[in-house]
Amino acid sequence: MPAIRTVFMGSPEFAVPSLDALHRDERIEVTLAVTQPDRRAGRGRKLQSPAVKVASEDRGIPLIQPGSLREPGIFERLANESPDLIVVVSYGELLRKSLLDLPKHGCLNVHPSLLPRYRGASPIPAAILAGDAETGVSIMRLTRRMDAGPILAQRRSPLDGTETTGALTRRLAEESGLLLPGTITGWVFGEIDELPQHEDDATYTRELRKADGQVDWREPAVQIERFVRAMNPWPMAWTTLAGERLTIHSVRVGSDAHRSERPGAIELEQEMVRVQTGDGIIDLERIQPAGKKPLSALDWARGARLESAPAFDLPEEQRPPLIFTR
Predict the structure, then answer these.
(1) Model's pTM, two decimal places?
(2) Signed CA dihedral, 193, 198, 201, 204: sign only
(3) Omega cis (within 30) before 235
(4) 185 within 8 A of 27, measured Cβ to Cβ
(5) pLDDT for 234-266, tens place per residue?
């Protein structure tokens, strides 16, 4: 039986294990990879290639980098591949109807949540922020509605309450690669029935912005600890002290329930830097002053020569929710 002709669309590091898994599978032929253009990033504003571009070039997979899938000639280029299937993993652009209808077996998408929970742009930090006991990856058939297509397969992954978004992203990327090849072949060979999503159970997430990382010390300590992990590595949790920004890399929930009436109040005690929250205490572990390297919170506090009764600033505006329903 001929290999399944597949066009792969993806951009960040999350997509690479899926591309690798398809490239290694003899039942599947990745005839073309489609990824975003190189873009300038970092302090030096140097051009950086998407991870999928680097991976495709290393594996000898033909590659294109359109600025948009609507560019003249792009649809024709994809149609020339005569794809049996298009696989989309964190590509960064919605597919219009003509592309959805192009492959014989449709377009499949990998989404890092247990759909219909956490549709949208930020499902991984959302699971951490909500304190979920598990998350996972879903493979669905793409439709014109965002993340609403029928599910072909899911793989569950337990959470132990220590994961950062960065670490969980890497884990779910690997699990996506394990799930995808068998799902593709099962779908194409008619061995998998799609399962419609329950719309009543759907929740949504929005894209995170830099401003979303500001810690609101009026929240409970348990929620702030989750927040710090959810914001790592983007946009990173941060706070200010007298207007000076500090990036917060790691914290833990303190053993004391209440020490002050002032959320954000800082106290040095028993070689720890402790912060009062709206409910409980946060012990700071590792922070980073603006323009400097990360260091232990205790070393920072000793060097900062904190004045009497110091307190971190509170946000002036309420942060919009990351998770919502429609």
Answers:
(1) 0.96
(2) positive
(3) yes
(4) yes
(5) 999 999 998 899 999 999 999 876 667 899 999
